[in-house]
Structures are given as structure tokens and as C-alpha cells.
Amino acid sequence: MILTAKTKILMIIAAVLFATTIGTGIYYISSTSTAAVKVTDFTAMTKEEVLTWAKANHVAEDQITFTYAFDEEAEEDTVISQTIEKDTALGRKDAIEITLSSGPDPDLELKLIDFKGMKMNAVREWFEKNKFSNVQYTFAADEEAAADEFLKCEPACGTAVKRSDKITVTICSGSAKDSEEAKEVTVPDFKTYTRTNIQAWGTTNKITIRFSSQSSDTVAKDAVISQSPSAGSKVKQGGTVSIVLSSGKGLTVTSFVGKPRASAEQWAKENSLKAQITEVFSDAEVNTVISQNPSSGAISAGSTVSFQISGGLVPLNDYTGKSRNEFETYVANLNTQKNKSAKITVSVSEQESDSAAGTILSQSASGNVKPGTSVTIKVAVGKKVSVADKRGTSEESFRSYLSSLGLRPGNISYAYDDSVSAGAIIRNDTGSFAAGSSISYTVSKGSYNFSYGSLINAGNAWSALDSKASEARSNGWSVTASYVESEVYDAGIITENCSVSGKSIACKVSSGKVATVPNVVGMSYDAGIAAMKNAGFNASATETSGYRDEPAGQIIGQSIAANSRAKAGSTVTLTYSKGPKPIETAKLPNIPIGVYDGRSESEIRSLLTNTFNNAGFYNLNFVIKDSSREDNNNAVESISPYPDGSVIDKNTTITIVILVGKSS
Q: Less Cβ crowding at N or C end of the chain, within 10 Å?
């Protein structure tokens, strides 16, 4: 076949195009291949930075899973752990789980301290340091507290609360007068403020901020939806500003209990929620959701949903043949895993065996077991021998007995015993014991003899006998005291020889000297004081507050009744009279009665009142009588006692009779 030049050219072009297509395909396949890449250290990176790394290294979206966990130190949405370590190759079929911080646990409980006396800044610092998220400050006038000083909080100080609970703290804005004179503050536009900034503005200007929230499809989460009063308004210090914050887009919660973990995480991812995963031991299928919070209701985008995921049954190893200590250490470690959810308990029984003491002979459960399983292990103890009660046996014989059983003496004590002779066994450990065990016993010191001597005689101090009787009491003696009044002995002294009967001693002990209280009512002050002292009592005296008919200084009462029995040395308070009230005298004015004829009743009253008051008389008694006089004029009929210049008691009642005319 002969090819034309044109045909040759066309074939060359086709070959070049084919080669180019093949090359491009090879390059595309090569450039989009998912060859293994080395994992970096994501610690402290943000979620966005991790996604940027994944895109740059051609890591598929389904190869990275994000979960959330509370962390006291890491910033929210920063990496705190990863399932594949740094510099490890990540293949096409590999997946890496990244755990991001949800910030501090909002449900962690703390006890509110007593803020009394603290200033506002110190109170704020405490709440910020302990990472509370819902603290509001209000201001109130108070007359006793200083400005900026803590007044109260709700819930009250000392209450255990969650970090996320609403806490209202009231701070003193000053006195009521300060509140009246408080300056006005211009309210800013809070749309660009964070909640923290708004609260800071409020506390700085002593304005109470009231926060509330509502969902919004247009306003970002935590941004301001509205405020009252509006921006530019004036509000007085101590007033209130209300802020409505966005809780983000509303979302109805779906329950994933009983469903796969992957479904829950995918739902959280699609709805911009933070999935906090907690893995626990469970008899549910591995990676199944066994609880969820919240499991219903409505939440906003960006919220955290907690999922408790089944990590399967507890893998319990069989420790038969190993030591009890090893097994208990193993179980203690197992119980710390998967959020302390294993909850394995261990009970121990002992069994005689030729195996080394402490060796586990059997274990009731092993393999994959349910959380909370109780495991019983039988532990080897050496062969045991039985020890009998050897009361009354001599110590030498008892020690030989122990030796014959392969046992040895343990703690030895000594005690008195009336029924066991000195040197014999009073009591000893009994029961089954492993060979080589130590057996404790008590040896008799014989009967106890209490040498009380003359301590029981009248006139001796009870304390001396009581102190010496300490050992006697522990050896079956009864040494007691009954307290009685005495005119002879001071308190604490035995009043008559104690009675002794067998191992019982009974004593009568003075509760203190007593004496008869004399009757001093009617005596003078000095005589009453002297009579009390002569009878053995202390005396104090007080004067009556008011005047009395009895002469001044005469005793009119005593705090302890006359002829009663009282402890010698007691203080008796005597009350004496202040005496009669002194008479004050004044000179009656000279008043000719007729000078008041024809004056009005009120004028007569006024003139006579002034006249007598000026003379020192205030006890006036006006009597009004109808006049039978035809002229109808008013007049003073009589004044008694008559005002003739006589000197009389100023408290005397002056009776004034006024005649009132018929037409008055």
C-alpha cells in the first residue's frame, strides 16, 4: 500500500495525539493517586487547619473523623489528641480520628465561696478563673456596705453549682443618696459586642445586664439580636439593660440510641454540631450508641451533643496460678479504663492448700464479662492447726503446747484475775491458724489488792481516792461518790468515812459548805451588809430606781430568800430604798380674784395659767360653773388654796372655779 504525503502527515498527528492522551492520563492518575502521606502532629491546631492539611495532602474527607471532649486547658475547637501518631504513614484505606476540645466541662460542679467583704473585681476574677459561663451582675443601693462591695448571690454562697448554671451576683452601687445622684450613661450599640464585652461594660458602668437568648436563622450564634433600651439612650447607674443573644439556627434533636456511632457522628457533622464521644464497657454491640445527651428537644448549631458509645464487654484475664496481689492490681488498672466503666469487684475466700500462700486456686469469671461483674477468687493458705482455750494452764506448759503445734508466742500481756493463780493463762487466741503463726495470750498477776488505807476517811480529798482507784476499777472494783451539802467541809472533801463492802467503796462527798441566809429586810444598808458577811455570804447592794416611802438606805429586798439554805460564799444582792421624794416648795402669788371679772373664759384661763406657772405651780385644775348672775359676765368664784403669798408644796393641786355667764 502506497501512502500519500497527506496520509503520512495525518498518521503522525494521530500518533502524537494518542501519545499525548496516554501521557495526560498517566499524569492524572499519578497526580490524583492516594499514595501514603506522613501524618503531622495536629496538637493545638484548629479544625480548619487540619482540613487545610488534608486538602493539601489529598487526604479523602472520609479518612478524617472529628470528635469532641471537654478539656480544662485547650482552647475550644483545637486538637487535643489523634489516633495516628506523628510521622506515621496514612494509607488510602486508613482513617484518623481527631479529638477536638469542647472547652471546660460546663457541668463540672464547684462550691460557691463566701464572697462577703470582697470587691467586685475580686468576685469577677474568681468566676473567670473557675470558668463559669453564665454569671450576671446586678447593682443595688445599701447603707451599710461600701460601693463595689459584694452584697449577695443567687444561689447563695456555699451552694454546689454547675459552671453553666445561671449565677446572679448583686454588688453595692453605694448608698440610697448615691443612687439618687447617680450619673446617666449613654447606651452603646451592642451589635458588635461579645457577651463578655457587654457584661464588662455593665459592670464598669454599674448597669445590670439581663441576658436572654432565642434561635435565629439570620443572626450568628452568640451575636446580639436586640437590646433595650436602644443604642444612644440614657440609663442611670444602677439601671438595667436587656440583651437578646442568638442561640444560632434551631435544630430538632434526633436520638441515636441503639444506632451505630458513625450515623451519630455523620448527623452531628451535617448539622454543624460538636459530637462528644465517651467510650464505655457495655454488653451492647461495639460502636453502638448506648446513651445521648440531649436525646430530644431543640438545640442550636454549634452546640455539643454527648454520645456514650459501647466499647464492648470487659476483657477479664484468668489469673489462676498467679498471686492475689497481682490480680488485685490488674483489676484496679482495668477499672480505670474506658472512663472507669468496668466496675469489676473482687471477693476473696481462703482455702488450705499445698500451693504457696496467696496463690489464686480458682477464679469464678474470666474472658469477656459484663461491666459490674463480681469475681470470686479462692486463695491458698497454708495448712492450719487448731488452738484450744488454755485458761488456767501455766505459761510454761502453754508455750510447750504452742511449740508442739508448730506455732510461736505472740504478744504477751499481764492482768489481775481473782480466779486464776499468778503465772497461769487467763486467755489466749483460739481457732485455726497457719503453721508458724504467732499466738497472743494473757498471763495472770493473781488477785488484785486495793490498798486504799486512810484515803476513805472523812476530811480527805475525794480526788486522791478517785485517782488511786483507777487501776482498781479496771480490776472489778466499784469506787463511787454521792454529793451532799455540808456545813463543815468544803467542796470535794469526804464528809464521813466511806462504806466498804467486798469490792465496792461508796463515799459521801461535800458539794460545798452551805449556810442559812439571814433576813436583813428592814435593816440599814451597813447593818444588812455586815449581817450577810457574818453569815458567810458575800453581799452587793443596789439602790431603787425611784423614790419610796421607806427611809433612804433601808434594805427592802434580797436576791436569795431569807432562811433558805445556800452555798457559803454565794453573793446576795441587797436592794435598798432611795427614800421618799423630796418636797419642793414655792410661794403662792398674791391675786385679787375680782380683777378677772368680765373677762372671757379663755382669757381667764390663760392669765391664771401664766401667773401660777411663773410662780412654779403647774398642777392646775379648772372647774367651770354656770353663772346665775344677771349681768352674764364671767368671773372667778374661788381659788384653793387661796393665792395669798403662802409657801406650799409645788405639786399641790390648785383648784380654780370659773363662773361662766349665761350668754357666754
A: N
Give residue-wise pLDDT tens across range 394-444.
Answer: 999 999 999 999 999 999 999 999 999 999 999 999 999 988 899 999 999
Pair 59, 92: CB distance under 8 Å: no
Decide: 241 and 229 in contact? Cβ < 8 Å. Answer: yes
Residue 662 confidence (pLDDT): 63
pTM score over 0.70: no
Positions in the chain short of pLDDT 50: 1-10, 12, 14-34, 664
Q: CATH assignment of 517-576, given 3.30.10.20, 3.30.70.890, 3.20.20.70, 3.40.190.10?
A: 3.30.10.20
Residue 34 amino acid letter = T
pLDDT for position 428: 97
| pLDDT at residue 204, rounded to an integer | 86
Three-state DSSP state, 129: helix
CA 90/CA 588 separation, integer angstroms: 125
Q: What's the pLDDT at 115?
A: 93
Cβ-contact 435, 418 below 8 angstroms: no
The Cα 651–Cα 647 span in angstroms is 12
Fold match flag (384-444 vs 517-576): yes
Residue 94's Cβ-side half-sphere holds a number of Cα atoms within 13 Å equal to: 16
What architecture (CATH level 2) is domain 314-381? 2-Layer Sandwich (3.30)
Contact yes or no for 246/222 (Cβ under 8 A):
yes
Q: Please give the C-alpha separations between residue 28 and each of 32, 52, 59, 408, 492, in angstroms, as whole numbers.
A: 6, 22, 16, 89, 112
Residue 507 is inside which H or E element, if any? strand 504-516
Pick the CATH number of 384-444 from 3.40.50.620, 3.40.50.720, 3.30.10.20, 3.30.365.10: 3.30.10.20
The highest-level CATH class for domain 251-310 is: alpha beta
What is the domain partition of the chain in residue ranges?
Answer: 1-33, 38-96, 109-248, 251-310, 314-381, 384-444, 453-514, 517-576, 585-660
For the beta carbon of residue 407, count every other beta carbon within 10 angstroms.
Answer: 20
584-641 confidence digits (pLDDT tens): 899 999 988 888 888 888 999 999 999 999 999 999 999 998 876 555 578 899 999 9
CATH number, domain 109-248: 3.30.10.20
Looking at residue 29, its pLDDT comes to 37
Q: Which residue has the cell 460538636?
A: 274
Which residues, including other chains, have CB under 8 Å from residue 408's CB and lie 6 or more apart? Answer: 402, 436, 437, 438, 439
